[in-house]
Each structure stands twice: as C-alpha cells, then as structure tokens.
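Try this one yourself first.
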C-alpha cells in the first residue's frame, strides 16, 4: 500500500486530529472520515467546517499540481472547483459504505 507521509506539524502537535484518509482501491474511491468533530463545539457548523476543509484541500492540490509544472495555480484551482461542482451535481458513481461498529 502506498501511504502518505504524516505532516511534521501533525507529529509535533499532541492535539492533532486526522480527519480523512482517501484511497483508490478495487477500482473505486474509499474514504475513512472523522465526522462530528465540530458538532458539539458550537463555534462552527459541521457542514461549514467540512466545506472549509474541502476548499483548503483543493488549494493544496492546486499548489502541488502547479509545483509539478501542470499550470498556473489559479487556473488549476478553478479547474478543480469546476470539476467538484460538476461531480456534486451529477455524480459519476454511487457512494456506498459502512459505519464501523460503535461509530455513528
């Protein structure tokens, strides 16, 4: 399995929390998510928090693609957001999953 490196800041911070892992396996997308982290804090709605996380991730992907010489960061970010909006409106695959025992 090809596993990503844990960021240095997460290793240094005793309060770090992993929110998501994403794999392509068995010809599909598979995720492990920590939902509900913000639900009990009353500071920000869970949906708002996840919107921020997804937008920040899109920015990181655009930065990485630009660093690989795939184009200007702004154009790449716009393309990612455009693809996100198309997929959100008309998914190319159905989502399926399960909740591990004791979760949810």
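Now uncover the answer:
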């Amino acid at each position: 399995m090809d596993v990503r490196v844990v960021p240095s800041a997460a290793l240094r911070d005793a309060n770090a929390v992993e929110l998501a892992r994403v794999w392509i396996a068995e010809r599909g997308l598979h995720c492990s998510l920590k939902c509900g982290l913000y639900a009990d804090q009353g500071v920000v709605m869970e949906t708002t928090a996840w919107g921020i996380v997804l937008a920040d991730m899109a920015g990181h992907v655009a930065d990485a693609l630009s660093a690989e010489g795939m184009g200007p960061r702004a154009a790449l970010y716009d393309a990612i957001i455009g693809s996100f909006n198309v997929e959100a409106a008309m998914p190319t695959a159905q989502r399926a999953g399960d909740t591990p025992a004791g979760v949810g």
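Discussion: DSSP finds three helices and two strands in the chain. The beta strands are 20-25, 28-33.
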